[in-house]
Amino acid sequence: MRHFDFSPLYRSTVGFDRVFTMLDSLSQPEQPTYPPYNIEKTGENAYRISMAVAGFDESELSIELNQHLLSVKGEKSDDKTEGSELLYRGIAKRAFERRFQLADHVEVRAAHLKNGLLHIDLVREIPEAMKPRRIEIAAPAGAEAPKAIEAQVING
Fold first, then answer.
1. Residue 94 to residue 107: CA distance in whole angstroms
2. Residue among 122, 95, 100 nearest 34 (CA)
3. Are residues 3 and 70 in the same domain?
4. Spatial CB neighbours of 58, under 8 Å, sequence gap ≥ 6
5. Which of 96, 133, 140, 149 is the most buried (most CB within 10 A)?
6. What is the pTM of this model?
7. Is residue 67 one of the residues assigned to a domain?
8. β partners of residue 61
9. What separation, in Å, do the N-terminal and C-terminal C-alpha atoms of the chain show?
10. Are 57 and 73 within one domain?
11. How many CA atoms lie within 13 A of 127 on its CB side?
12. Is residue 155 a part of any domain in this protein?
């Protein structure tokens, strides 16, 4: 994969350094692939992250939000059954940590585990001060109403 140099953009932009850092991190090939996950848009400003965490219990999973970074960690406890011998291990028991960079004003609403899938519901709430608003154009203070000019038509 190619590495892009964003340094020319730093000279002409202000406040976008977080975006460039995120783009740099996306270009790194060593991204973990376990556990698999989906990100879906469930509404105009609603999102859901679904992670396949089969074999994990609620007590073995932790979700942490630190500023704009959502971290999901899984640490499997040893559950050896007395008197049994494991002949083949096909279910992964390895610990994991998956991180998601959230955009501004995206909040975690809920998380639940069902049928081996961890669902994290997110919503984007834009503050009223940042929403677009219509500005009325008013006449300057002390200005009079425009005067109408009357004209007479002369037939010649």
1. 29
2. 95
3. no
4. 113
5. 96
6. 0.63
7. yes
8. 74
9. 82
10. yes
11. 4
12. no
Say which CATH number the domain at 111 has.
2.60.40.790
Consecutive H or E run containing 20: helix 17-26
| 10-residue mean pLDDT series, the chain (156 residues) | 62 63 62 83 91 89 90 81 76 84 89 93 86 82 70 74
- Domain of residue 21: give its range: 1-31
**Scanning the structure block, which residue is given the tokens 């028991």?**
93
Which residues in the chain belong to E strands, given as ranges? 37-41, 46-52, 61-66, 69-74, 96-101, 106-114, 117-124
**143 within some domain:** no
Residues whose CB is less than 8 angstroms from the CB of residue 1 and which lie 6 or more positions away in sequence, other chains included = 27, 29
Amino acid, res. 33: T
